[in-house]
Amino acid sequence: MESKFYQANEHRAEKVHELFATIARRYDLLNDIMSAGLHRRWKRRVVELGVVGRVAPHGAASGDAAYSERVLDLCCGTGDIAMLFAARGARVTGADFTEEMLRVAAGRFRREKISRLQWVRADALRLPFPDNSFDVVSVGYGLRNLSDIELGLREILRVLRPGGKFVTLDFGKPESKVFRTLYFGYLRIVLPILGWLFCGDPDTHGYILASLQNYPAQRGIKVLMESIGYRECGFEEFCLGLMSINFGSKTAA
């Protein structure tokens, strides 16, 4: 599957920026349509897992968790995960390198009147934060889009405080070859139609399959995190592996 927005070369970041600038205003609506609203449940689970020092049991109520004080929501998009953390009392920095997405996030922030939340334009491969700055770093549907995933993971590890948690939600790859074939068929046929209907360009959502084909997904990300130095790495799968959350922590000093 090809998309003009996916280039596995030095123009990768430029094309990703162009893509998200194009879809920013329709981003939330299309997420609801593509996932039948389930992305909101998966994002709440990201927040539950972002508790420093332990992994919350699957199914535990988010109100039972003591949320960390400083959170970086990286590749924050329109701010769903950032606002969930802020609503729990965390001091949150939402960072993205697409101005159009940040404008949508800031508009939602003003309407919902959530405090303890700031928006920053930043490159995930060159974060403008000192070492050991955050208790939690979260990413929602962003790690797959980085031009250098390993460098991005190293930057996240750098800005995490000792004992801090990293949690990332993204498309996964089912282990079942049959189910994976059906899943990729859906991404190849249905999503470009949605891109054409809502954004006027099928390549905006044909990009998802193009980027996923070269993404190591839940198992590969776990191995990569462990090789870089993350501890207590693991992942949770949803919908038979169509979506997944990877998590790990920085060694406590």
How are strands sequenced across the largest beta sheet?
3-2-1-4-5-7-6
Number of strands: 7
Return the structural class.
alpha/beta
Mean pLDDT: 87
Q: Report the span from N to C terminus.
A: 45 Å
Indicate the overall shape.
globular
Give the helix level as a range of percent.
Answer: 40-55%
Strand-helix topology:
Blueprint: H1 12-23, H2 27-35, H3 38-49, E1 70-74, H4 80-87, E2 91-96, H5 99-112, E3 117-121, E4 134-140, H6 149-159, E5 160-171, H7 177-199, H8 203-213, H9 217-228, E6 231-238, E7 243-249
Parallel strand pairs: 1-2, 1-4, 2-3, 4-5
Antiparallel strand pairs: 5-7, 6-7
Verbal overview:
This protein has 253 residues and is an alpha/beta fold. It has helices spanning 12-23, 27-35, 38-49, 80-87, 99-112, 149-159, 177-199, 203-213, 217-228, and strands at residues 70-74, 91-96, 117-121, 134-140, 160-171, 231-238, 243-249. 44% of the residues lie in helices and 20% in strands. The chain has a seven-stranded mixed sheet with strand order 3-2-1-4-5-7-6, sandwiched between helices. Helix 3 (38-49) crosses helix 4. The radius of gyration is 17 Å and the shape is globular. It starts with 11 loop residues before the first helix and ends with a strand. Residues 53-66 have low confidence and may be disordered.
Question: Could you name the key traits of this structure?
Answer:
253 residues; alpha/beta; seven-stranded mixed β-sheet; 7 strands
